[in-house]
Specification:
39% of the residues lie in helices and 26% in strands. It has eleven helices and ten strands. The protein has helices spanning 56-62, 66-69, 75-86, 96-111, 122-129, 138-144, 155-177, 180-198, 201-204, 207-215, 232-237, and strands at 10-17, 27-36, 39-47, 91-93, 119-121, 223-224, 245-255, 258-267, 270-280, 285-294. It has a five-stranded mixed β-sheet, sandwiched between helices. The relative contact order is 0.11.
Length: 296
């Protein structure tokens, strides 16, 4: 199975429409749930007044009648509010390309905005993690995980169900492949091994110094990064006028979105071995782990 990414913060969306054509049919409902640290923290649910009447077929499918939308806001108003709700969050849906096809076309048509949020398809994840199912429609995944869904084919209920399916899939995947936290711990161990190899022989051969070294390891903090993968070295180069120097600078690409930087910071008679892990975010690189060890 190829690597799957399960973000901790994201928004699940679902829409109801008057048909299947994103250019000629209309959105009549948008529902979404906002997830922070894998938990629901907010919801969005709005009916939209279409320009043309809703057909009996769509009413029978969704339960949305022309009377229900007669006093609803127009598409421009709802999309403006929805944009504030999603901001730049990762968007997830079940067969998300259908939803985003309508959403993007309407953003461009009515607001003149090109929506560029990153997206993940819950349907694709279900097909990879549950290959034994003959069908991976949302209702089939809901049934497989015994998820209670009050009303199918209503946007907010479908978004809530999609969220629950996605989290069930995450638990299954991480049980089989390890969580993101496990991967970070593995990277820490890799750093430890690399640093041990670079430590002075005196330190490596002294159990007390080794213990002191270990005790200082793995101090974690989060810092907004202004350093990109290929600019880290340039950043250090720009600080050469200060009273320290960089030696043995190396960057190792762990994967396309994770890099490990190691270097020796030389100041006066002291040398400090430093390592940091950086992950790629939507707009920048973010340091998620950093440590330094005196190596004189």
């Amino acid at each position: 199975m190829s690597k799957l990414v399960f973000p901790s913060d994201y928004i699940v969306l679902d829409i109801e429409t008057t048909g299947l054509n994103s250019r000629s049919d209309e959105i009549i409902e948008i529902g979404a749930v906002k997830i922070v640290d894998h938990q629901v923290v907010d919801t969005f649910s709005r009916l939209i007044k279409p320009q043309f009447p809703i057909s009996k077929f769509i009413t029978n499918l969704t339960g949305i009648t022309n009377e229900m939308v007669s006093d609803a806001d127009d598409i421009e108003t709802v999309l403006t509010d929805f944009l504030l709700f999603i901001n730049d969050a990762i968007l997830i849906g079940h067969n998300v390309n259908f939803d985003l096809g309508f959403i993007k076309n309407n953003f461009e048509r009515h607001l003149g905005i090109c929506l560029e949020n990153q997206s993940l398809d819950n349907l694709r994840y279900a097909r990879k993690i549950l290959p034994q199912l003959s069908s991976h429609k949302l209702k089939d995944c809901v049934s497989y995980f015994n998820i209670f869904q009050e009303t199918a084919h209503r946007a907010l209920d479908d978004a809530q169900a999609t969220y629950e399916v996605f989290e069930h899939l995450r638990h299954m995947y991480e049980k089989e492949n390890g969580s993101e936290a496990d991967k970070i711990n593995l990277l820490k161990e890799t750093i430890f091994e690399k640093e041990m190899a670079l430590l002075d022989p005196e330190v490596r051969s002294n159990p007390l110094l080794i213990q002191n070294y270990v005790d200082k390891q793995f101090r974690e903090f989060t810092s907004l990064g202004i350093v990109y993968k290929y600019e880290i070295n340039d950043t250090f180069e720009g600080n050469k006028n200060k009273d320290w120097q960089i030696e043995n600078f190396q960057i190792q690409e762990i994967d396309k979105k994770t890099v490990l930087a190691t270097y020796v910071l030389h100041k006066s008679s002291q040398k400090t071995l430093r390592s940091s892990i950086w992950i790629k975010t939507k707009q920048d690189w973010k340091m998620i782990f950093h440590q330094g060890t005196l190596t004189v």
